[in-house]
Structure formats: C-alpha cells, structure tokens
C-alpha cells in the first residue's frame, strides 16, 4: 500500500496533481499496489480532486475521522467528535487563548461563528454561518472536527497554547494552515484509522509506504514501514522522519514511486 497526504505532498502548490505523479500512481496500481489518500481534507474536497484526476479507491479523510469510498462517494466508517465534548473544549480554549474563533467540520459543511473569519476558496458553497457561538452547539450534524482559528498566532503557537486546556478529551493537531488548529475525537489519528484499514485488508505496516509534510502526518510516517517526509515539510517532520524525498513541486512522491518500481528503492532504514 502507498498512503499519501494531499496538500504539500501529492498535490502541487496550485492544488493540482501533476501528469508525472498521476502516471506514477497508475504504475503502482497496475503492479497491484493500493493507493490510499490520507488527508485532513473532507470528502467534498476529495470528490473535486477525483473528478479532475480520475482518482478512485479509498481515502482516510478529516485526519482519520472518516473512511471514504471515492468511487461510490460514500462514507464507509466514521469516528465523530461528540458535540458536548467539542463545546467543553471550546470553552476551555476560549479562556486559555483569547480572541480565537470556532467552526465545526461535518464532512459536508463548515459551520462557523462570527469570530471564525478564516475563509477558504475551496469551501465556497459549503460554509454556513451561525449568528453566535452558542448557535454553533445546536447543530444536529455529526461533527468530524472542531476548528480553532487565530488571526494573530501561527499554528504551532496555537497548538502549544491550546494543549493544556484541551486535556485528554480530544486529539489536537494541525496541517499547516495559518493559525488553524484541528481537533478530533480522542484517539482519532491518520495512522490509527489507516492501521484499521490495513488490518481489514491483511496488510502489515511493513508493507506500507507513506508520504507527508505536516505534523498531522507524523503518526502515519512513523507507523508505516517506510515513511518519507517531503523536502518542503514542517521542520518537526523533517527532524522526526529519516527518509526524505523532493518537494511536492518537484513531484517527490512520483520520484520515489518511479524508483521503487524500477527496483531502485530500499526501505527507509536502509536508505
């Protein structure tokens, strides 16, 4: 299995999948290797990418909260964040880190309160404002992530500031978004969900090659038998992962796959 993050990893900076990378993925699939997308993105983003690039197969979305069948456009399994937990954690974080805004990701929509002023072009049509923070907790939709945004703190600083207030009730991480913290149900990680997926398929961790660039990818990169950090990766990822490849702009994932299927790449421990 090849497990790859999307933004900053498989995709170029303009959000596209290069022809070279697409050819490399097809080569791996033709050789019997399963390609699994492992991303912080929701299914709706994967749908748009699938339409543009013809991707099929399985995606682990929302940092592990959802397993998604790309071709069928169906959520196969989910691990949601209880709304009561999201509210308790948001209350604690608002006290610990003033002037932050909150939003709820449901997989289909982003519900946001007035202080959450982050707008993403790819979410146009999926964003739903609510009048007050209190109204955010009235949703009946299943919540995959609580999003916390600050216009004055970078993601690393925000994560460090939020961790004491969140306690062990949730899983905190970030994927590099400016001042954006992503919070899932406790124990929900990309690696945890990928491990369950592999177990169902009879695939051992040693048979998995993973690619990523941000802190939310670290669980996968360190769990997989071979993990590659992109050259453009977050400093913490570059420091923690021994094997590196070229940047996403230089088709680093394709570079490894091409050499792998030419018999030129050995496991990371031997590189």
Automatic annotation (TrEMBL):
Highest taxon, organism lineage: Bacteria
Coiled coil: none
InterPro entries, A to Z: Cof, HAD-like_sf, HAD_sf
Database matches in Pfam families: Hydrolase_3 (PF08282)
E.C. designation(s): 3.1.3.-
Enzyme kind, highest EC tier: hydrolase
Keyword terms: Hydrolase
Gene Ontology molecular-function annotations: hydrolase activity
Gene3D superfamilies xrefs: 3.30.1240.10, HAD superfamily/HAD-like
Listed NCBIfam families: Cof-subfamily
Protein name: Cof-type HAD-IIB family hydrolase
